Amino acid sequence: MRKLALILISISLLSCEQLSMNNNNNLKSIYPMTKKVNTSDLYFSKEIQDPYRWLEDDLNKETKSWIEDQNLFTDKYFESLGLKAQIKDGLKQIWDYEKFSSPFREGNYTYFFKNSGLQNQSVLYRKDSQGVEEVFLDPNSFSEDGTISLSDISFSKDGSVAAYAISDGGSDWRKVFFLDAETKSLLSDSLINVKFSSLSWKSNEGIYYSTYDAPEGSELSSLNNNHKLYFHKLGNTQEKDQIIFGNKAEQKRRYVSSSVTEDEKYLIISAANSTSGNELYLINHLDENPEIKTINDDLSIDVYLLDSLDDELFLVTNNNADNQKIISVQAQEPSLDRSKDLIPEQDSVMSPSSSGGYIFIELMQNAISKTFQYDFSGKLIREVDLPGIGSVSPISGKKEDKELFYSFSNYHTPPTIYSFNPKNGQSKIYFKPKINFDPEKFISEQIFYTSKDGTKVPMIITYKKGLSKNGKNPTILYGYGGFNISLTPNFSSIMAYWLEKGGVYAVPNIRGGGEYGKKWHLSGTKMKKQNVFDDFIYAARFLFSEGYTKSENLILRGGSNGGLLVGAVMTQEPQLARVALPAVGVLDMLRYHKFTAGAGWAYDYGTSDESEEMFNYLLSYSPLHNIKEVSYPATLITTGDHDDRVVPAHSYKFAASLQELQRGDNPILIRIETEAGHGAGTPTEIILDSYSEIFSFILGNIENRLSIK
Q1: Is 678 an annotated catalytic residue?
Q2: Which is catalytic among the residues 348, 560, 622, 651?
Q3: pTM, 2 dp
Q4: Architecture of the domain defined by 4-93+437-699
Q5: Catalytic residue among 232, 593, 642, 678
Q6: Within 13 Å of residue 601, how many CA atoms lie on the same side as its CB?
């Protein structure tokens, strides 16, 4: 390991321009040294070297030392740029506005989250029937730096007790506490080691929750397989909690979750081994000797509970319906074989919800929301009149509520909360934020471009009105493309800053996502994963051909599966963009399934040990294994040392390999955020600090630098 003092002196002598102009040998001489260990695996008679395998051990002192050295190097790089403080001030000016969530009613109170502007975590408030407002739970009191966050809260049937889960440093492992809602005093009950869990109340008796067996070794990287559903009775210790599902061999599943019908009559259990397809079971709370009844045992389809009415269950499924449909079954004999279609599959992807005694269906038409209201007989009541083109949250409220709520936003319009009257269909503004940003100055246009194989792909491009299409516009191309997840127009204060400074923001709805249903998703999975990368590459080429930007001003951005997207594209097409920003990425496609719940992603990716054909396909695009001695874009890799979903070793090994093999002048940096995870619950201060570095990095490396004044 090189002496840290030498690294500090070397970097501090370099200005921004000197760093970007240095030849690769000089850059390599000041990167923190990463040792190589002779480690390899044999896959179907083919040996694959993995010299940075040792970085997978997050408990190793050498790994921790490597993290410190890389962060120190990155710190000094940003000091040399001298842009961070000014950018952070600009981000604060846009971020600093009052933000509200949609209100929800529990017991005698109406609850809502509020952030005064720059608070690290939003605070849960409530109002009584007289409109008197008070703080109910302030997550900013959990820790001084805001790194302990509130991840979930659930109230008992009468609203008298609240169960809430906290995350420490962004970890997916949770602790659960119980609060007397009237006095706001903590009860003696608590739960530890809860992961990927809902908190579902059975009346006021207690909650159902899910977790895995305690991990062996590191809880941040150990494999999670057998998920179990427990019932915790209030007043008992966790050791006395009853296993409901997952204790038998035939019940071993990777993901188990629960929900209780609003009338509390039925417990619904979902069990799955991957991110697509699930079994569904039912337990009748009113039976003297309740037994588990099977609703669905076919893991190749998705089924979930929408609502119930007496003994009729309303379910959403993609069984023989790629865009989903709503069916009903009788709880006494709930098998899907006995189901009836209530609302058939539509031409667009259906996302149903229920509240106020009605069913609401959001139809995603080319990634843009339209919402329709139905009754429980399947009769269409009306199309909900939305305020514009964008994304709408599910219309929320309890079954008996007369006033419901939803929020609406798009890429240049901050979320506005509306109240909705389900009887007459009228919406009224409930809360509109006052933000230092004028949406009227910007435009979002949806275009369709042609990908490599002729597929038409939609993309929304947002920019300031009057943009000159001269190829000089710095442009962030953001993508995801996986797990049936759809990217719909939503506002970001961070991107508002970018737009205000004159940048372009382009979001293609590439294959692998859910924008056009199951077929669109499947066309970007396993042996068709290359479609996802091709769609992203051809989105960039469209931006070039239409004059929005050129490669010297293009920035590739994506996180998690989107981090894989950026990693794959930059290694396949190193000259496509000037800057690459892979965040918390899945970058080692041969070993991703060996950590935490990674094996559950095999539905999308396949695994390196399932067949030689699948191994060779994964090897062909795995970002880590396709780094060569060529010139790569300026690359800032970001991850969190507490990320136990996509373990940070992916990013560590990718950074080490890039730093070793980079043959161009562009810098390769990694920022490892300590006390941070996959993203959820990240405090405001860390978010602003992180993006001030990201924008500094962009402006320090693209050809046409935006003014930050």
Answers
A1: yes
A2: 560
A3: 0.93
A4: 3-Layer(aba) Sandwich (3.40)
A5: 678
A6: 23
